[in-house]
Design a protein that fits this description.
alpha+beta, 4 strands, about 40% helix
């Protein structure tokens, strides 16, 4: 028995599929918004990578300058102490006789300060040092060295080193961990 006017099941399915096919797919606005979102995420990742690379390079320069500072300290340790009262001032003597070899850097001794009182405590850069030779050399000098990079592989450093005479300033005086 056939009923006229009633839809059969395949006809209903066909009508539903036709309607959904017309509404299928993305609109231009959806596509543009998706692309903008993806581009924003990609740009954020690229920006963060460049930031990490830049900070790594800066850190590498600082570490290299610090390592070269240690090399300068080792070279200054090998230089004999130049006491006050000689024919040449200690600053001129250190500048003329000491060649600090540091690859990629230029090292210059720019200042020598002298201990005022051998019995005083030694706060770095405090009032314990003076720029002129004391009447009696106390056996300790503060040398200021500046390291300038000659290439783009480091940062400038300003260093202070304390140079001691090879002998104790007073007889039988002992310093912890050192022989006089």
């Amino acid at each position: 028995m056939v009923v006229h006017g009633a839809m059969t099941r395949p006809a209903v399915a066909r009508r539903f599929l036709d309607r959904t096919r017309d509404e299928a797919g993305e609109t231009l606005i959806e596509t543009v918004m998706s692309l903008l979102l993806i581009a924003t995420v990609v740009m954020a990742v690229i920006f963060s990578l460049f930031t990490v690379m830049r900070s790594t390079r800066a850190h590498r320069k600082i570490v290299r300058s610090g390592n070269e500072s240690v090399a300068v300290a080792e070279q200054l340790h090998q230089v004999p102490y130049l006491p006050c009262g000689g024919s040449v001032t200690p600053l001129d003597g250190y500048q003329n006789d000491v060649e600090l070899n540091v690859p990629g850097f230029e090292a210059d001794i720019i200042d020598v300060r002298f201990l005022k009182d051998g019995n005083a405590s030694l706060p770095p850069g405090g009032d314990s040092f003076q720029t002129t030779c004391p009447t009696t050399d106390q056996g300790v000098q503060e040398l200021t060295v500046v390291l300038h990079p000659t290439t783009d592989t480091g940062v400038a450093q300003r260093l202070a080193f304390y140079k001691r005479a090879n002998e104790c300033p007073q007889q039988n005086q002992q310093f912890e961990g050192q022989l006089c």
